[in-house]
Amino acid sequence: MISTSPSATRKRTLGIDLGTANTVVVAPGAGIVYDEPTVCCFQAYDAVPRFVTAGTEARNFVGRVAKPLKIVRPLRNGVLSDMVATRELFQFVRRSVGPLRRFGKIRPDIGIPADATQSERRALETAAMDAGFARPRLFSEPLLAAIGLDLDIAEPRGRMIVDCGAGTTEVAVISLGGVCLSKAARGGGEALDQALIDYFASHHRFKIGHSSAEALKIQLSNVLAGDGEKGWVEVRGLEMATGLPRTVQMPAAEVLPVWLKHVEQIVHIVRDALSETPPGLSEGILEDGITLTGGGALDRMIADSIEAETGVRAYAAEGALHSVARGLERLIEGSSVR
Ligand SMILES: Nc1ncnc2c1ncn2[C@@H]1O[C@H](COP(=O)(O)OP(=O)(O)OP(=O)(O)O)[C@@H](O)[C@H]1O
Prior knowledge:
With 338 residues, the protein is α+β, with helices and mostly antiparallel strands. 40% of the residues lie in helices and 27% in strands.
């Protein structure tokens, strides 16, 4: 069961949705106070790299500064992969939401994948405490998403949440205020970006960067939802043979197999979760449908594919990108969690 923050500690609490791609922070009474990419920038020329900045500013530095700067991603596949960068990011967040510090040590509530191991949980706690926070409370992200979507999680009724993040895809069945079953694939939207990069390199000798790959993925999802396979997509990159920048256009049908392989993995874990769900909980899922959250849920075709392959209604939640943060907000506000 989830307990909300008592009012005395509420002022000293922050909610942190530390995602592989984006970090969203909520503060009591203020809503979202920080929403930036999960990226840190260090000076690379010192023996011990020195922290420069994080978030949007760090991302904007990528490839645009002459100084030897190193860009570090604190998380990989939904969990902490660089302790120093995570600590620096937490400190950056603390400074960014500065005024809260006058209330003393902040004890954050942080979202974590439902299948995170004990050592992954401990590493996150340590990074937060090294950054000057009090020991955080950790909550499963699908449960937070369900709270953020205002689902009645306390009911003895199965709810299925599919969180399509950048680094993880998680499927969870929730009932009686807890996660009854969860399945996760460590790999989300960023794995599709990488698959597109690999496809263009091997099939077209065309080098595309991560931001072009992400833009192509979003374009592809819009084209598939609109014109379908007949539509066209445009991608910018470097022609490997000449080393010159080019913009190429191609039919969406050509890159469709790369996209389909990614979606098949999501459908596969949803099917697995459905087949392992006890019948008593399946009833609720059949009646209410499957709720998709996370940035990947904005690709309408993912919900359509799940629905077509499972026969269960699937839909993207409204405000899919912020449902975990909204769940954290409800927890720290101490509003009753149903
Ligand atoms: N319209 C869209 N179509 C497809 N994918 C999208 C769209 N908009 C955003 N995304 C993808 O959503 C992902 C970011 O989602 P989100 O912020 O939920 O992830 P995260 O919380 O950082 O990751 P994780 O929960 O896995 O650690 C990125 O991979 C981004 O490219």
